[in-house]
Each structure stands twice: as structure tokens, then as C-alpha cells.
Amino acid sequence: MPSLEQRKISCDLTAALDASAVRELHAQIEPLVSEATYLTLNAAAVERLGTQAVQLFVATARALEMNGGRLAIVNITPTFREAYADLGLLAELDARSSINAEKDTDG
Q1: CA–CA gap between residue 72 and residue 11 (Å, rounded)
Q2: What CA–CA distances, in Å, run from 107 to 1, 28, 71, 103?
Q3: What pTM did the predictor assign?
Q4: CA-CA distances (angstroms) from residue 103 to 29, 97, 99, 107?
Q5: Average pLDDT, stretch 44-57?
Q6: Which residues contact 96 (CB under 8 A, 6 or more apart)?
Q7: Quick one: which H or E segment has residue 65?
Q8: What is the pLDDT of residue 101?
Q9: Looking at residue 97, what is its pLDDT?
Q10: Quick one: residue 75, left, alpha or beta (phi over 0 = left, psi -120 to 50 = alpha)?
């Protein structure tokens, strides 16, 4: 099976990722997961991060990986990290950090 070329897409996250913001973000991200997409989310502005947003990011990462893509999260704020920690998902977040993402794109 021939390998698909990865598309590289970046997205800046908003300050508040509550339920309504997650619905909008899901609508933007959903079309990308069926392709071999390398998606980078810039979390620099995030001040509030709800459980629904974390669930969306975890599901997106898994769906992208199943299709040959990758999710990277860069510029992680303390609030962003705390939301993952509260859910026991720091290892999941660390797997998406910019350091690990850079290692994956170098080779």
C-alpha cells in the first residue's frame, strides 16, 4: 500500500475551551482525522480547558495515528497541563509535547 504524504496544519487554540468552543473546534478538526495529517495545536493562549476538550484531543490523537497522522501540542500552559493531570492523562499529554513531536518529524 503506497504511503500517503502528510499534510501539516497548525491551529491556535482559544483562551477558553468550554463546551461551545469544543463543538466549534471539533467541526474544524473532524475533516482532518481521515487523512494522514500532522496537526499542531498551539496552546499558548489557553486559560481554561474543560474535560470535553481533553477528550477531543485524546480522541483526535488516536484517530490521526490510526490514519498515519500525528497530533502535537505546543506552548502548553500550566492550566492546560493541570487539566490533563486532573484526569490522570499527563503521559498522554507528554506524548504530544513539542519535544516528542519534533523527534517524530526529524526522521
Answers
A1: 10
A2: 20, 28, 16, 7
A3: 0.84
A4: 23, 10, 7, 7
A5: 96
A6: 57, 61, 71, 72, 73
A7: helix 51-66
A8: 45
A9: 83
A10: left
Question: What grid cell was written down for 103?
Answer: 523527534
Using the structure block, give the residue that is written with the C-alpha cell 485524546: 58
- Could you read off the pLDDT of 67-107 as tens digits, one per residue? 889 999 999 999 999 999 999 999 999 998 864 444 444 44
CA-based torsion, 67, 63, 18, 90: positive or negative: negative
Place of cell 493541570: 82
State the Cα–Cα distance between residues 99 and 64, nearest whole angstrom: 18
Residues 6 or more apart in contact with residue 44 via CB below 8 angstroms: 12, 13, 74, 75, 77
Beta bridge partners of 7: 37
> Identity (one letter) of the amino acid at 62?
R
